[in-house]
Write a structure and sequence with these properties.
This protein is of the alpha/beta class and about 500 residues long. The protein has 2 domains: about 190 residues, 2-Layer Sandwich (amp nucleosidase, domain 1), CATH 3.30.1730; about 280 residues, Nucleoside phosphorylase domain (Rossmann fold, 3-Layer(aba) Sandwich), CATH 3.40.50. It is built from 15 helices and 17 strands. Strand 9 and strand 10 form a beta hairpin. Helix 7 crosses helix 9, helix 9 runs parallel beside helix 13 and helix 10 crosses helix 14. The longest helix is centred in the N-terminal third of the chain and has 29 residues. The protein is globular.
């Protein structure tokens, strides 16, 4: 029998030289220190991996840690209570791990500046006790040669830390975090590893880099809207940008203001599951549009991941079933309440939690409808109805016993039904991202009013362009609003994180 040779046991853990904590009363300097520490520690992991692929075996484990920012306050002094974030709820020690400070530089400077201003205390930058998984240490777009990795005789998990799903969760956002004795309270909604996980998923699902995502996000469930968005964005680029600087398509294909659209050969031959398109402004002030497809599962998946980018607002633009006989095809529905029969968030946000309308979003959407259609006041009621939108996880709900879903829809006073809107709104509520919904009635199944083939083509040509124009105008209105006004206190719980 062939004698088996076992690798030598791991006898030590190799880490970068420890770094002493640093205290700052300048947010920009603090973020710079976070960047230096993050770059050093991720480079250590990459270099260690490269050395192993060249040399083979090792009896050492290689580990580096995420940077951490922390702050301590010992006063109950009340801060400006009008702002939803930027302050700690009680005295204590608060901390969060940090990843990709290059991507989040502007966000981190803003959040730390608010804490320093509101509490008059410095922040501390140090190394955390949370290891950086090797997978998250590689630079975006890095290709790891499989044959090189095979030259390492040990399993990667013996030599490096790998993503740990036990610590990649939403307990902070869900309000279910249980702290151990002496542990700091969370400073941010998401930990570094949770953010890294979502950044990698975003690239996979949307085929665009997280750096291209803008702070104002439109979701749709039909490709027709994406086609119209692309046509509009390309026209803006051809006209010099019209306030926008770039348009980015899946595959990170970039068209800059003043440039002609790229050749078709540059486009992806196969689109990802939820392709994203970015009409960019400086400082992420533009609009991202994502085709999430159909269903609450997709709606939850994409919002789970985009939420880590801390956008300022997201809005659902899509088609719905009109539930009232008085509605006509092409009418708009502005949601001010939701019936949640999507079920994908039941374990994270109980159905008894109300999802309130947010005045700033509602007003922006209604004003955009008025401006684009030219209708105001009582006349606006001819084409738009405000009411409850129901979201269901059964695409063929019409085939169920009518005493079931139809009766519930009637009792809830629902005026429209789809498969995504309540999920997107509920995840906005859960992650403290302002949300809204403006739908377009595309059929009325309860009343036997379905589009015939020819009618469908004409309907989409006419209605999609107007609906998208309304959505873009609403997002531009929100972008003009002071962010401290847009981020609502309605979305904050009893004991909140200081970071937005």
């Amino acid at each position: 029998m062939e004698k088996r040779i076992y690798p030598q046991a791991i006898d030590s853990v190799v880490v970068p030289e420890p770094v002493d904590p640093q205290t700052f009363d300048d947010a920009e300097k603090a973020v710079k220190a976070l960047q230096v520490l993050y770059d050093r520690n991720t480079r250590f992991l990459r270099d260690s991996f490269a050395a192993l692929t060249a040399g083979g075996d090792s009896n050492k484990r290689y580990r580096a840690f995420y940077p951490e920012v922390s702050v301590t306050t010992n006063s109950f002094t009340l801060v400006d209570s009008r702002q939803a974030y930027g302050h700690m709820p009680t005295p204590g020690h608060f901390a969060t791990t940090i990843t990709r400070p290059d991507l989040f530089e502007r966000y981190l400077i803003e959040q730390l500046s608010l804490i320093m201003r509101n509490h008059g205390v410095p922040v501390t930058v140090s190394e955390s006790t949370t290891p950086i998984p090797l997978h998250f240490a590689f630079l975006e777009g890095t290709h790891v040669d499989g044959s090189a990795a095979e030259r390492i005789r040990r399993p990667i998990r013996d030599l490096f830390d790998v993503p740990d799903l036990d610590g990649t969760d939403d307990h902070i956002a869900n309000g279910t975090l249980e702290l151990g004795l002496g542990e700091p309270r969370p400073l941010a909604v998401f930990t570094a590893q949770r953010i890294d996980y979502s950044l990698h998923r975003l690239t996979h699902y949307t085929a665009t880099s997280p750096e291209h995502f803008q702070n104002f996000v439109l979701f749709t469930n039909y490709q027709f809207y994406i086609d119209e968005f692309c046509a509009l964005a390309r026209q803006k680029m051809a006209n010099g940008g019209e306030g926008y600087c770039e348009f980015v398509e899946p595959g990170n294909v970039v068209t800059r203001a003043g440039e002609a659209p790229p050749a078709e050969s540059m486009a992806l031959t196969r689109l990802p599951q939820m392709p994203a398109y970015h009409l960019k402004k400086p400082n992420h002030g533009g609009i991202t549009m994502v085709n999430i497809g159909v269903g609450p599962s997709n709606a939850k998946t994409i919002t789970d991941h985009i939420a880590v980018l801390r956008p300022h607002a997201w809005v659902m633009l899509g088609h719905c079933a009109g539930l009232r006989n008085t509605q006509a095809l092409g009418d708009y529905v502005l949601a001010h309440a939701y019936v949640r029969e999507d079920h994908v968030l039941d374990d994270d946000l109980p159905v008894w939690v109300p999802i309130p309308p947010l005045a700033e979003i509602q007003v922006a959407l209604q004003e955009a409808v008025q401006e684009v259609t030219g209708l105001t006041g009582y006349e606006l009621k001819r084409i738009m109805r405000t009411g409850t939108v129901a979201t269901i996880d059964n695409r063929n709900w019409e085939l169920r016993d009518q005493r079931g879903p139809v009766q519930r829809l009637s009792q809830s006073r629902a005026i429209a039904l789809d498969m995504e809107s309540a999920t997107i709104a509920a995840n906005g509520f859960r992650f403290r991202v302002p949300y809204g919904t403006l739908l377009c009635v595309s059929d009325k199944p309860l009343h036997g009013e379905l589009k015939l083939p020819g009618m469908a083509s004409e309907f989409y040509k006419r209605q999609v362009a107007q609906h998208l124009t309304i959505g873009i105008r609403a997002m531009e209105k929100l972008a003009e609003m002071p962010m401290e006004r847009l981020h609502s206190r309605k979305l904050r719980s009893f004991s909140e994180t200081a970071f937005q």
